[in-house]
Structures are given as structure tokens and as C-alpha cells.
Amino acid sequence: MRLTSLDVFRGITIAGMILVNMAGVVDNVYPPLTHADWHGCTPTDLVFPFFLFIVGVAMTFSLAKYTQDNKPTSAVYWRIFRRAAILFILGLLLNGFWNQGIWTFDFSSIRIMGVLQRISLTYLLASLVVLKLPRPGQWILAGVLLIGYWLAMMYIPVPDYGAAVLTREGNFGAYIDRLIIPKAHLYKGDGFNFMGDPEGLFSTIPAIVSVLAGYFTGDWIRKQPVQTRTSVGLALFGIGCLIIGWAWGWVFPINKKLWTSSYVVLTSGWALLLLAGCYELIEVRLIRRWSKPLEIMGLNAIALFVASVLLIKVLVRTKIGTGETAISTYNWIYQNIFASWAGNFNGSLLFALVTVFLWWAVAVIMYRQNWFIKV
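Given the sequence above, the corresponding C-alpha cells read:
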């Protein structure tokens, strides 16, 4: 069984990720296209957890024959570990690409964690949970991870900072990351200054539940008829998660960079609502013409993500002009082709939209050639 609505959901998510990554290079960007500075949640903050949720839904179908009567073989575990390793290595390559020179990787200071690394670890650990634990145990573990992370972050004191300090450097997760990962390999941007990481190891613990939430959703969908009541059920679950996540946020703030438990529940709610809409239109009502471009992007999501990040690095690192007047290729295109007539904010938005369209064109070519890159 292939869930076309999931491919469309994935396409929406990769298009959103390219959009916000491209728009966010400059300072003049509309607020919904930027991450919340710290506590809070913007539309941009939904993109990454949507990817993890999608990974979980897809796992439902890829692991289905191993989670009931059949037992997974060593070859199954090998495929899971291999995929996780490839994703992690790709993330390292993206982190190291063109930090000093185009062919130079500074292994002494390369950032260890990142987006693909988090996808890798959460996929690996969630897969092991699904294959090793019965369903009640999976639910119990998900709850333990969320509640345990909350209690640890709020009640375990950090040396020199104390307990319940949810700053970039003073939170318990950053402290654990500094104990495990050498300081030079932590994130230096966004005010972290090598004192923590927005995709750190400790905050990967609740991110596992973002994947498991997708898995629970996909497993439920597989057992339901293709009817509107299934879409309604997804929407109701989503609304319930939004309420719980919002309420939890009063005592454990919603925060992407800490991947707080309230953030996991809230973003899972939004993911359920978007999936419900896609499922109703595509699977139930068979209204699919609008979704084909997004489905095409969703079929090569990882390839488009990696290629788009590499392109941004090339545009930012290369220069046009000489001496002190030289500016990055990105800024030259932004200023001369978009901002010069559309204004700064509209210019950054248009630049990002054009980039999404270009990557969609690449996805169309790959689709027509039957090139589907998977790891």
C-alpha cells in the first residue's frame, strides 16, 4: 500500500524547507518565514518536526511485515543501520562543505549534529523501539521520554546555572551536550557560541517521539477504511494534541531549539491536521490534480534537501566583484534581480519562491527519468 497523501505531505514539507532556508539568508524576511528567536512557534518551526512525523508514518509501511507475526532478520537491522549511517554522514558532509575552502573539511571544528543527523538518530532509535517493544510498551516509552525530558530540563540543576534555566547555554540539555561533544564541534551560530546545539544529542530524546507519533498515526490509518471518518479522526487527534501542547507550554515552554515536550505534542497536532486535509482530498475524494507537483517533490525529498543546502552554501560563499566591494553571489542576485524592484521583504520572498520553483523543475526531470534517490 502506498499513501499518496503522505508523498504530498512530504512534498509540502520539502517545499516549505527550501522556502524558509532560502528566504532566511538575509535579514529582511517576513516573520512567518523565520524561526522563533527562542520560546514560541512560527510556521517555519513546523517544517522539521513534520519531516520526523513523516518518517514515522512511512515506517509503518516499511516495517509492517516485521511488527506482527514475522520477526525481523539481521538483514533488516542492517538496512536500518545503513540508512541511518548514510543520513548521518550526509549531514556531516553538509556541515563541513566549504567552511574554509571548497575541497577543505576542517575536522577539528566540524559541527557534529544537524538536521540530517537528527533524522538519522531518531529514525534508528524509533525503528528499534517499534521492532523490539509491543504496542503498549511503545506508547508507555513515548510518554516516559516526554515526561522524563520535561522533568530533567526543569528540575536537574546545571553547575553554575541552577535548575529550570532554559537559556541557550544554561539548560540541562546543553550541559549534557557539552559533556559528550567537544566544544569545538557544537553549534556556533544563533547565539549558541559553542555552548549548545539546536539539534543536540540530549534534545534528540523527545524528537524520537515526533517519529513515534507519525508511526502511531500511520498504523492507525492502515487499519481504517478510506472514508471521511478517518480524516475526521485524524483531525480530532490533531486538535487534541494542539490543546495538550498549548497547555503544557504554560509550564514547559514551546521551544524548537530545545525540542521541548510541549513542542513535540503541539507540532504533532499540526502534522495530524495537515495530513487529515491531504488524506481527505486525495485518498477519500480523489481530488488529486492540485497535488501532483507536490507529490513529485515528495518522491525525492532528501535529494532536493541536500542539493538545495549545497546551492545556498555555494551562493553565499562565492563572490561577485573584487576587493572590499565584492559581495556574495546570493546578495548580488537578491539585490539586483529581486529587491531592486520588489523591495527588501518582497524581494527575499520572491527569491525563495523562484528557488522552490527551480527545484520543482529539477524534481520533474528526475520524475520523468524515473530517478528516485533513496537512502
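The two ends are 20 Å apart (CA to CA). Try to locate this feature in the C-alpha cell string yourself.
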